[in-house]
TrEMBL record:
<feature type="transmembrane region" description="Helical">
    <location>
        <begin position="166"/>
        <end position="187"/>
    </location>
</feature>
<keyword id="KW-0325">Glycoprotein</keyword>
<keyword id="KW-0813">Transport</keyword>
<feature type="transmembrane region" description="Helical">
    <location>
        <begin position="20"/>
        <end position="40"/>
    </location>
</feature>
<keyword id="KW-0812">Transmembrane</keyword>
<protein>
    <submittedName>
        <fullName>KCMB2 protein</fullName>
    </submittedName>
</protein>
<dbReference type="Pfam" id="PF03185">
    <property type="entry name" value="CaKB"/>
</dbReference>
<dbReference type="InterPro" id="IPR003930">
    <property type="entry name" value="K_chnl_Ca-activ_BK_bsu"/>
</dbReference>
<keyword id="KW-0407">Ion channel</keyword>
<keyword id="KW-1133">Transmembrane helix</keyword>
<keyword id="KW-0472">Membrane</keyword>
<dbReference type="GO" id="GO:0008076">
    <property type="term" value="C:voltage-gated potassium channel complex"/>
</dbReference>
<dbReference type="GO" id="GO:0015459">
    <property type="term" value="F:potassium channel regulator activity"/>
</dbReference>
<comment type="similarity">
    <text>Belongs to the KCNMB (TC 8.A.14.1) family. KCNMB1 subfamily.</text>
</comment>
<dbReference type="GO" id="GO:0015269">
    <property type="term" value="F:calcium-activated potassium channel activity"/>
</dbReference>
<keyword id="KW-0406">Ion transport</keyword>
<dbReference type="GO" id="GO:0005513">
    <property type="term" value="P:detection of calcium ion"/>
</dbReference>
Length: 200
């Protein structure tokens, strides 16, 4: 009687462990799919692949030339923010180009270095832009990225998804997938050993 209970408990434990392993594998596959349709396309589309050094030429906050978060200039629900225009000299090519914060900044507003989020307050945005301008003027030279193919004649300060960030994004689903496969393999080995022992 006790032996039957132990066998039943063992089978339940194996079933639960097997379900856990399969769930971990399924979750890792969903994470791979999500990364594959969001982060990977953004990484591959970016042409700013080569890191170089940029030397600041001019950082001007154009208070009179405000930029808007909305394409409709008559929209009263959105605020206008000061436009920070940054010109740099790219050391690798020797060209004088506009500098943007990220790839996304250029797409949202090609006139300004920084584009705030929709939820940010106007006073906070103004303070942040002033801080960015003073930091750029303080350091003068800093790492940046440019397009070696010449498709884009500008530079960005940082990439949205650098190679390290992409590898880090793949790290967690890989660990989850490995753990799930390991659990499944251990359960199968345990089942095989149990059958072998019973047969002997």
């Amino acid at each position: 009687m006790l032996g039957k209970k132990l066998v039943t408990a063992q089978k339940r434990g194996e079933t639960r462990a097997l379900c856990l392993g399969l769930a971990m594998v399924a979750c890792s596959m969903m994470m791979y799919f999500f990364i594959g349709i969001t982060i990977v396309p953004s990484y591959t589309k970016s042409v700013w692949t080569t890191e170089t050094v940029c030397k600041l030429l001019k950082a001007t906050i154009k208070d009179r030339d405000h930029c808007s978060l909305s394409e409709d200039p008559e929209d009263e629900d959105v605020f206008h923010y000061p436009c920070l225009e940054v010109w740099v000299n790219v050391t690798a090519s020797g060209q004088e180009v506009l500098l943007y914060s990220t790839e996304d900044t250029l797409e949202r507003n090609p006139k300004c270095f920084y584009v705030p989020g929709n939820s940010e307050k106007p006073k906070e945005v103004k303070t942040r832009i002033e801080t960015i301008a003073s930091n750029l003027k303080r350091y003068q030279t800093f790492p940046c990225y440019y397009d070696p193919g010449g498709t884009q004649t500008n530079a960005i300060l940082s990439r949205l998804y650098p190679l390290k960030g992409l590898l880090f994004a793949f790290l967690w689903p890989t660990l989850l997938f490995t753990g799930g496969c390991l659990i499944i393999v251990l359960v199968k080995i345990s089942q095989y050993v149990s059958v072998l022992s019973a047969w002997q």
